[in-house]
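Memo to structure team: turn this sequence into structure tokens by end of day. - J.P.
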Amino acid sequence: MTDVYISSTPDPVTPITLVRTGDLSTWLESLDPAAASWVRSNRFEAEKNQFVWLPDGSGNPGLVAVGWDGEDNLETLGGLALSLPQGVYRIDAEVSQLQLLGWALGGYQFERYKTAPRDPAKLLVASEEDAAALASFESAITLVRDLINTPAADMLPGHLAAEAEQLAESFGAECTVVVGDELLDRNLCAIHAVGRAATDAPRLIDIRWGDPDHPQVVLVGKGVCFDSGGLDIKPASNMRTMKKDMGGAAQVLGLAQLIMAEQLPVRLRVLIPAVENAIAGNAYRPGDVVPTYQGLTVEIGNTDAEGRVVMCDALALAAEEKPDLIVDYATLTGSARSAVGAEIAAMFSNSNDVAEAIFRSGEQLDDPVWRLPLHQPYNYKLESKVADTVNSASTPFGGAITAALFLQKFVADLPWVHFDIMAFNTRARPGRPEGGEAMAVRAVYGYLQARYGQL
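Reply from structure team:
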């Protein structure tokens, strides 16, 4: 994690000034002629993510000028932690928490298997309050990224459960795990069916935290720790990144950590169906009919549409206690990526008010979401001749919508939000390095804080 200083430090501190692109001429006029000439010779145009060192009175580097497009987002400072030389810096301007968070997140490096080539530059933060909030957000998002970036050999269902248990213990939460054939005893047959072929047994992770008198919020995350596609096996090129198919589980663990760290007044429950979609003699098959916790039977049209099968049991369990809100995250469909790309979280909801509020929160926190429709007429695509529903439509059209409609069958009429996400940066951007990523976590937290934070 990026070091955050709260007060004075014995290290020399280098000031950073933000230069708005449109104010470049005025700023240059404020400099002495030698410094202005130096800036021009370095072709500094104050474009975003561009910076230049200015000499001090002795001719040594004394100030960093950073270009700024005037937007309040992660990119403002997100490229600096690993592009500036190691050292301690301070911002000589009023900047937002979001911009400071960009610096912190831009310093992320995954170091479990390989030592990073350098440490990130350090940032001096003005107040203890700002530093504490930054630490909470950075820690939560780092958890999400680390979980997703870890290869499946070290992030199988048992490992994921251990991570959840450790998180729960850190915040005094209760964590129970239902493993293997115990799932059948609990009528969680869909989770068991998908994961039974793996050597690491399927399981349901269940975390509870908070005051019983507070409104209940349930987070459900798809925890498919590796997805071969099952008997409908994926081609090799599509299987290469399937360590990230537990990205939904990573999101809810990161969001849960943030909620607990900030002591949000909610009664939190986190449900993660954790499986590996493997191939063996006892793997579930196309054409099988699987019973579910809610009672609906599901005909398996495609074993590679396994995420919605494990999610349906967890969602039905979540709905059983009639919570105030259910939010689920899943790396569910390629159709969502086709619709909104890899950098926006596709959002579905049965509540216009909740969806609109989360969208606005995402815009404010540089965590983009875009709502897609729960188009009910498309339910015809999920009809089965032998069961209550199929898990996968026979045509690819509207695939993200039909997947969401399948999940909706298991949440009754309770307020519900579903995110179909990439959970992975396919390119590096300031504040967003390539690899595992938190998507719609800040947007949902901002919404929850606005809705419940004043209770």
